[in-house]
Q: What sequence folds into this?
């Protein structure tokens, strides 16, 4: 069920989808719209932060439930691009509708429903997008393609964020004469990101080859997909290495996600950074993360994704530990910027490792489980951090819990065999 051979342009078009969809987490859920929600729509910042967190947590739970099943169904249907098209379109529509979230508490529910549903669609599109990876390149270049895609994603998110800052946030008169008094310049983030996603996703659908359809009727694909997922659960011992890897990834990704979620809060509270400094820090850390993802792409193919992940997570632990003890903004920058270099490889190599390990006829189902491993315990890192912070009345103590997740993930990963190439497809031929 391999895709037709991919050209270099087809592979670049696949990477460009990372550029397209990274605008959503960067602008909507991380930097701009989330801050607009907590500061202008919600009753107060404390309530807004809690409400936003719950909306994304419920969205993640829905992904954890739906991704393995829909992945199994897609494996029997054959094609992945129709699923990507549907979920990308849904994400774009819902994101565009965020324009209607006016700066008033009456729009809290609307903003949360739209953002949560859009996040669900974004994550689901990624399941099928990731599953295309092994069919697009030779087995010795999977890490390179994954890393390049991830690096291009960081660049795309930052480019969209930069455009938003120049054209909307920092502009004395935003484009199209948008009214800052009614927050139109911030509400416009939704339509801007939606348009960005749609435009830059087009090359994937035009030029990246898909696996062929198996010709099954939709109902039959659902029936067989459901049966296959139940069979996978029953045969879980046969996939012991994959299960161990997914649990290891769940732990170190929990640590990484918590680091991202609370890094700005830590920088502001412990090192006294103001809002403009935080934006500059956010841009800088994303630049180093993108460079790390692209640069380590060759390392992934050279020494394998498992060792690449081990190097990256170890680097995160060492530099993260240093940030827990240093004083002053200068030393914060000295250790924080290099830390970003290891963020991208930890994510990109995780994707390529799953591509190597997944059986060829179960790739989308396995990437569904991969998505589940990134969401199933997403609440655990923030919850432990919050509890330890309150217990010791110290942000440094709370942030130290992240190192526990990194260490536990590394310990489990050590027992996962390096299965590079065993399940990879035959090399495609450029033409």
A:
């Amino acid at each position: 069920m391999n895709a037709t051979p991919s050209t270099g342009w087809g592979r670049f078009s696949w990477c460009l989808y990372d550029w397209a969809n990274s605008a959503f987490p960067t602008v909507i859920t991380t930097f701009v719209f989330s801050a607009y929600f907590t500061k202008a729509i919600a009753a107060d910042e404390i309530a807004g932060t809690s409400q936003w967190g719950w909306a994304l947590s419920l969205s993640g739970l829905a992904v954890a439930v739906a991704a393995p099943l829909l992945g199994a169904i897609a494996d029997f249907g054959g094609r992945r691009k129709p699923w990507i098209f549907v979920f990308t379109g849904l994400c774009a529509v819902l994101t565009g509708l965020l324009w209607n979230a006016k700066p008033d508490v009456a729009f809290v529910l609307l903003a949360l429903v739209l953002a949560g549903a859009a996040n669900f669609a974004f994550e689901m599109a990624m399941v099928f997008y990731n599953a295309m990876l092994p069919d697009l390149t030779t087995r010795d270049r999977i890490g390179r393609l994954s890393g390049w895609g991830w690096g291009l994603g960081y660049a795309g998110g930052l480019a969209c964020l930069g455009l938003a800052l120049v054209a909307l946030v920092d502009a004395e008169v935003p484009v199209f004469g948008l009214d800052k008094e009614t927050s139109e310049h911030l509400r416009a983030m939704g339509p801007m990101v939606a348009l960005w996603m749609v435009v830059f996703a087009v090359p994937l659908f035009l030029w990246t080859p898909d696996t062929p359809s198996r010709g099954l009727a939709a109902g039959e694909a659902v029936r067989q997909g459901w049966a296959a997922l139940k069979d996978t659960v029953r045969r879980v011992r046969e996939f012991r290495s994959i299960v161990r890897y997914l649990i290891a990834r769940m732990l170190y990704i929990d640590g990484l996600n918590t680091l991202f979620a609370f890094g700005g809060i830590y920088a502001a509270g412990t090192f006294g950074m103001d809002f403009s400094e935080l934006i500059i820090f956010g841009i800088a850390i994303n630049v180093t993360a993108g460079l790390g993802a692209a640069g380590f792409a060759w390392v992934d193919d050279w020494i394998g994704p498992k060792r690449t992940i081990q190097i990256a997570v170890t680097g995160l632990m060492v530099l993260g530990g240093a940030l827990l003890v240093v004083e002053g903004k200068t030393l914060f920058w000295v250790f924080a910027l290099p830390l970003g270099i290891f963020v991208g490889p930890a994510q990109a190599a995780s994707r390529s490792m799953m591509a190597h390990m997944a059986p060829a006829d179960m790739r989308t189902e396995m990437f569904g489980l991969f998505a589940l491993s990134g969401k199933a315990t997403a609440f655990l890192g923030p919850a432990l951090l919050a509890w330890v912070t309150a217990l010791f009345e110290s942000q440094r103590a709370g942030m130290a819990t992240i190192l526990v997740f990194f260490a536990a993930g590394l310990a489990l990963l050590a027992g996962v065999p390096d299965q590079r190439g065993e399940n990879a497809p035959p090399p495609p031929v450029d033409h």
